[in-house]
Specification:
heterotrimer; A alpha+beta; B mainly alpha; C alpha+beta; A: alpha+beta; Cytochrome-c3 Hydrogenase, chain B; three-stranded antiparallel beta sheet; 17 helices; 10 strands; B: mainly alpha; 14 helices; about 0% strand
C-alpha cells in the first residue's frame, strides 16, 4: 500500500507547547514528508517597542517575549542599547548578571528534562525532575523577588544586589544540586527504556547542522562546538573561559541523536553550577548601576544616537537583538529580535524523515522549541482577497529594499 | 419447566449483580491505582473515589458526533465494548462463588470473547473520521494481534498439564483449575515453567488494558488520545467503564488460573461459621488477591517505564514473550514426561 | 534507575504543599464560609521571601504628583488624578488653594515589576507580600490603590 495520507500536528497538540503547524505525510507509521509552517504567535512586541514605549518600559516588554527566557532577552536588549548609547557597566553588575543567567539556564534545562520525559510517556521522571526544579525557583525568588519575570536588568547594571544571606543560600542550593546531579544522570542516561526511545532517533548530522545554521545544544550535540560564551564573551564570561560542551566529553562518541542532546543539556547544568560557584567566589565589590538616577538615564537615552547588537547564549541557543536609537525620540527607532528557535525549527525536516509518528514529539521537544520567541506573519491582502505566506525570496527582496532605505536615511 | 424458569431468573439476577460489582469494583480499583501511582511519584493524588466523579461528569456532558463519522458504528461501538466485557465476567469464578454461567463455557470461550472489546475500540476508532483516530486504531489492531499468541500459549500449557494428569475432567474449565491449583500438581520443572508463564501473563495484561508501556493506542502526547479522540459525553463514559471492568476481568483470569486458593478450604475445618459467612470471607480474600495482581501489572509497571514504539511493542510480544512462553511450554512438557 | 526509586518514593511524604486544602472542595463558597466560621482550616502557602514583589502600597501623603511612575510603568497601570483634598500650595505668586495631583494604580493591570518603586523620588511606593489577589471583577475595590 503506497498511498500516503497527511497528519497535521498542530497548531494545537498535546506534544507541542506553543502553536506551530507540522504537516506530516505518512505511509503506515513511517514519515516520508515534512512541512513546517512557523509560527502562529505574533504579538507585536517589536511594534510596541518602536512606537509606544520608552526604553525603560521596553525592558519589561522584552522580558515577556518568552516565559522561560526572561533573563536572556532583557540582557540581550540591554547590551544592545548599552553599545548604542555607550554606557559602561560596573564589574559587580556583570557578575550578578552572569549568576542570574546561569540560574536561568539550570532552571530551563531541568524544565526541559521533565517535559522530554513527559513526551515519551514517562510521567514519574517528569514529576521527579520538576520537584527538583522547585529548589532553583525558590533561590530565584529569594534573589529577585519573583519566580518567573525576574526583572533585575536595567541599562547600565542590575537593580538588586546579592547580599550575605543570598550568597549563603546560593551556595547551599548549588551544593544540593551537585549532590542530586548523580541521581538525575542515573535516571536519564542509564534507564533502558529511555535509551530505547532516544538512541538513533532524530539524527542531525554535522554537515546538516552547519548547513542549516542550527544553534545551541541542538548543534553542540552534533559535534559542532559553537557557544557564544566561548566565541564572543559577554558579561563575566571572559574571565572564566567557558568551553562548549559536546557529547564526547561524556562517553567519547558523537551520534547527533536525541540521547546526545540529553547528555549535552545535563552536562551544561553541571557547568552552570561550577560557573555560579566561581562567580560567587570572585565577585568584586562596587556599584551596581552606571547611572543611579533613573531620570538622568532616561534623558541620556533620549539624546543618544547609534546602533548596537547584543548576543547572548540563551538556554536554547544564540539570541540576537538589534537596536537602533535616534536622538530626540524616546521609542527605539528600530528593534529586531532573532530568537534561537528560529534557527532550530528547520533542522526538524532532516531529523524527522524516515522516522515514525511516535518520534515526532520527542524530536520536536529535543530541540527545545520556544515558539513564543519566533514570529513571522501571514499577510492577508483584503482588497485583492488573497492571502499568501511570506516566502524567503519575498523577504529577501523586502530586506534588500529596506537596507537601501535605511542607508539613505542614516546618512 | 418451572425449574428452568427459576434458573433463568436466577441467571438474570446474577448478571445484574455481576455487572454492578464489575463496574463498582473496577472504578474503585482505578482510584486506588491512581492514588498509589501518585504517591510513587512523590505527590498527593486525587481522592480514591475520583473515577466515580469522573464517570458522573462524563454522563452529564454533551455527546458530540463529528460530521465525518459513520454515525451508527460510532454510537454502537462503546455499547458493544461494555456488554462484551461484562459477558466475560460471567464465566469467571469469584472466590468460592461459582461463575454465573457455569457449565456453559470455559477458558477457550473467554479467549475468544476477549477479542471483542478490542475490536469494538478499533471499530470506534475507524468510524471517527479523524487521522489521529485512524492511526490509533491501526496501532490497537497491531497490539491485539501481538499479545494473542503468548496468551494462548499460557492457557494451552496449563490445560495440557491438567488434562494429562486427570484425563477425566473437562480440561479447560475454570472449575478444574480451581480444584487442582497449578502449584500443587507440578514437579520442579513445571514450577519454573509456571513462574515464567505468570510473568508473561502479567505483561500481557498490561497490554490488554492499554497502560504504559504498551498504551500505544491511546498515547496521549503523540496522537492526542488516539482511538478516543473524538469521543465525548456518554460514549466516552461507556468506554471508561468498559476499561475499568476489563481490568477486573484480566486480573480475575490470572487469579483463577494461578491463585485459586480459598480460605474456606484451609480454615473451614478449624473455625466453624455458616457457609454464607465463608462465602463472604472468600469473596473479600478474592478482592485482595485482585488488588495485588492489579498493583503489579498496572500500577508498578506504569510508573517505572517509558512508552514503547509500535515496532518495539511487536518485538517484545512476538519476540521475547513468545520465546519465554515456548520455553515454559517445553519445561512443562518435560515435567509431564517425567 | 527509576524502578528502584519508585519503591523509596512510595513511603516518603509527598512534596506537594497542600494549599489551600488537601482535595478540592466541592463547593468553594461553602468552604470559605466554613473557614471563616472556624470549622475548617486552610493550609498556609509556602512563605514568601523578604523583598517579594506583591501588591503595591502607596503612601498618598508624601506623593508630590511628579508623574514619573506613570511614565515608566510598562503596562500603563498608573493614572494621574486630581486629589479631592484641597491643600495650600506655595508658588511664585504666593499661597494658593489647589487640588494636587496624585496617582491611582490599577492592580489588575500591574505586572509587578517594581519600576515605579525604583524611580519615585519621594519613595512613597512599596511592594508588599500580598499575592492572593484573584477577583472576578477587574475594577473591584481591592484592586485599586489607594482606596476610593
Amino acid at each position: 500500500m503506497s498511498e500516503t495520507y497527511t497528519i497535521p500536528v498542530g497548531p494545537l497538540h498535546p506534544a507541542l507547547h506553543e502553536p506551530i503547524t507540522l504537516k506530516l505525510e505518512v505511509s503506515g507509521e513511517k514519515i516520508i514528508g515534512v512541512d513546517v509552517f512557523c509560527s502562529q504567535v505574533h504579538r507585536g512586541i517589536e511594534w510596541i517597542g518602536m512606537n509606544r514605549n520608552n526604553p525603560i518600559q521596553s525592558i519589561y516588554l522584552s522580558e515577556r517575549v518568552c516565559g522561560i527566557c526572561n533573563i536572556c532577552h532583557p540582557l540581550c536588549m540591554v547590551q544592545a542599547v548599552e553599545k548604542a548609547a555607550e554606557i559602561e557597566v560596573p564589574e559587580r553588575a556583570e557578575y550578578i548578571r552572569t549568576i542570574a543567567a546561569e540560574l536561568e539556564r539550570i532552571h530551563s534545562h531541568l524544565l526541559w528534562a521533565g517535559v522530554a520525559a513527559h513526551e515519551i510517556g514517562f510521567d514519574t521522571v517528569f514529576h521527579y525532575t520538576w520537584a527538583l526544579r522547585e529548589n532553583v525557583m525558590d533561590l530565584i525568588e529569594y534573589l529577585t523577588g519573583n519566580r518567573v519575570t525576574k526583572a533585575i536588568m536595567m541599562f547600565g547594571g542590575v537593580r538588586r544586589d546579592i547580599k550575605e544571606n543570598g550568597a549563603k543560600k546560593l551556595r547551599e542550593g548549588m551544593k544540593f544540586y551537585l549532590e542530586k546531579f548523580r541521581k538525575i544522570e542515573e535516571i536519564f542516561l542509564q534507564d533502558p527504556t529511555i535509551k530505547m526511545r532516544t538512541r538513533d532517533v532524530g539524527i542531525l548530522t554535522r554537515e546538516d547542522a552547519l548547513k542549516l545554521c542550527a544553534v545551541g545544544p541542538t548543534t553542540r550535540a552534533s559535534g559542532v562546538p559553537k557557544d557564544v560564551r566561548q566565541d564572543f564573551p559577554y558579561a563575566a564570561y571572559g574571565d572564566y573561559e567557558v568551553k562548549a560542551i559536546t557529547p564526547d566529553i561524556y562517553n567519547g562518541e558523537v551520534h547527533g541523536d536525541v540521547y546526545d542532546r540529553i547528555v549535552v543539556r545535563l552536562l551544561e547544568v553541571k557547568q552552570s553550577i561550577e560557573i555560579i560557584n566561581w562567580a560567587l567566589d570572585n565577585m568584586p565589590s562596587g556599584p551596581l548601576l552606571a547611572e543611579k538616577n533613573l531620570v538622568r538615564l532616561k534623558m541620556k537615552l533620549k539624546k543618544a544616537e547609534g546602533e548596537g547588537i547584543g548576543r547572548v547564549e540563551a538556554p536554547r541557543g544564540e539570541d540576537i537583538h538589534y537596536v537602533r536609537l535616534k536622538a530626540g525620540e524616546e521609542p527605539f527607532f528600530s528593534w529586531k529580535i532573532r530568537a534561537p528557535t528560529y534557527n532550530n525549527v528547520l533542522p526538524w525536516i532532516p531529523m524527522l524523515l524516515g522516522g515514525q509518528i511516535a518520534d515526532v514529539p520527542i524530536v520536536a521537544a529535543s530541540t527545545d522549541p520556544c515558539m513564543s520567541c519566533l514570529n513571522r506573519v501571514t499577510v492577508v491582502d483584503v482588497e485583492k482577497k488573497k492571502e499568501f505566506q511570506i516566502t524567503k525570496e519575498y523577504m529577501h527582496k523586502l530586506s534588500v529594499k529596506k537596507t537601501r532605505r535605511l542607508m539613505r536615511n542614516g546618512r | 419447566m418451572a425449574d428452568e424458569i427459576i434458573h433463568f431468573v436466577e441467571i438474570i439476577i446474577g448478571v445484574f449483580l455481576v455487572a454492578v460489582f464489575g463496574m463498582i469494583f473496577g472504578l474503585l480499583t482505578k482510584g486506588i491505582d491512581r492514588k498509589l501511582a501518585a504517591h510513587m511519584q512523590w505527590r498527593v493524588g486525587p481522592p480514591v473515589i475520583q473515577p466515580f466523579l469522573d464517570v458522573k461528569k462524563l454522563f452529564c456532558k454533551e455527546n458530540v458526533v463529528p460530521r465525518n463519522a459513520v454515525a451508527w458504528l460510532y454510537n454502537v461501538a462503546p455499547i458493544v465494548c461494555l456488554t462484551s466485557v461484562i459477558a466475560i465476567l460471567l464465566y469467571i469464578p469469584m472466590g468460592s462463588i461459582p461463575p454465573i454461567l457455569k457449565g456453559y463455557g470455559d477458558v477457550i470461550l473467554i479467549l475468544y470473547l476477549l477479542t471483542i472489546p478490542s475490536l469494538a475500540m478499533v471499530a470506534g476508532g475507524f468510524a471517527s473520521g479523524s487521522p489521529f483516530a485512524t492511526v490509533g486504531a491501526q496501532r490497537e489492531m497491531v497490539l491485539m494481534m501481538s499479545y494473542e499468541f503468548p496468551l494462548a500459549t499460557t492457557i494451552i500449557a496449563l490445560g495440557w498439564k491438567i488434562s494429562t494428569l486427570y484425563p477425566g475432567e473437562a480440561a479447560f474449565s475454570l472449575t478444574t483449575f480451581t480444584k487442582y491449583p497449578v502449584w500443587n500438581i507440578m514437579g520442579p520443572f513445571g514450577i519454573i515453567g509456571a513462574i515464567i508463564l505468570l510473568v508473561v501473563m502479567i505483561l500481557v495484561t498490561t497490554g490488554e488494558i492499554t497502560k504504559v508501556p504498551f498504551d500505544i493506542a491511546e498515547a496521549e502526547t503523540e496522537i492526542a488520545e488516539g482511538v478516543f479522540v473524538e469521543y465525548s459525553g456518554r460514549n466516552l463514559g461507556l468506554f471508561y467503564l468498559a476499561d475499568a471492568v476489563k481490568t477486573v476481568v484480566m486480573a480475575s483470569l490470572i487469579v483463577a488460573l494461578f491463585f485459586p486458593y480459598n480460605l474456606s478450604t484451609y480454615l473451614g475445618s478449624s473455625i466453624h461459621l455458616p457457609s454464607i459467612a465463608w462465602n463472604a470471607i472468600d469473596f473479600l480474600f478474592y478482592l485482595l488477591k485482585l488488588e495485588i495482581v492489579i498493583f503489579f501489572s498496572m500500577t508498578f509497571i506504569r510508573v517505572s517505564v517509558a512508552r514503547f514504539k509500535v515496532d518495539q511493542v511487536v518485538k517484545v510480544y512476538w519476540g521475547y514473550l513468545t520465546l519465554a512462553a515456548l520455553i515454559a511450554l517445553v519445561l512443562i512438557a518435560l515435567d509431564i514426561l517425567l | 534507575m527509576m524502578i528502584n526509586e519508585v519503591w523509596k518514593l512510595l513511603f516518603k511524604k509527598p512534596k506537594t504543599n497542600k494549599f489551600p486544602a488537601k482535595y478540592a472542595p466541592k463547593n468553594v463558597h461553602q468552604f470559605l464560609r466554613r473557614v471563616q466560621g472556624g470549622k475548617a482550616k486552610i493550609v498556609p502557602p509556602v512563605p514568601t521571601p523578604p523583598d517579594f514583589r506583591g501588591k503595591i502600597r502607596y503612601d498618598i501623603d508624601s506623593c508630590v504628583g511628579c508623574g514619573l511612575c506613570a511614565q515608566v510603568c510598562p503596562s500603563k497601570a498608573i493614572e494621574i488624578v486630581r486629589d479631592k483634598k484641597w491643600i495650600i500650595m506655595h508658588c511664585k505668586e504666593g499661597a494658593k488653594l489647589a487640588a494636587p495631583l496624585k496617582i491611582k494604580i490599577y492592580v489588575s493591570r500591574c505586572v509587578f515589576c517594581a519600576q515605579c518603586v525604583d524611580i519615585c523620588p519621594r519613595k512613597c511606593l512599596k511592594m508588599s507580600d500580598e499575592f492572593l489577589l484573584a477577583n472576578e471583577n477587574k475594577l473591584d475595590k481591592s484592586l485599586i490603590v489607594p482606596g476610593p
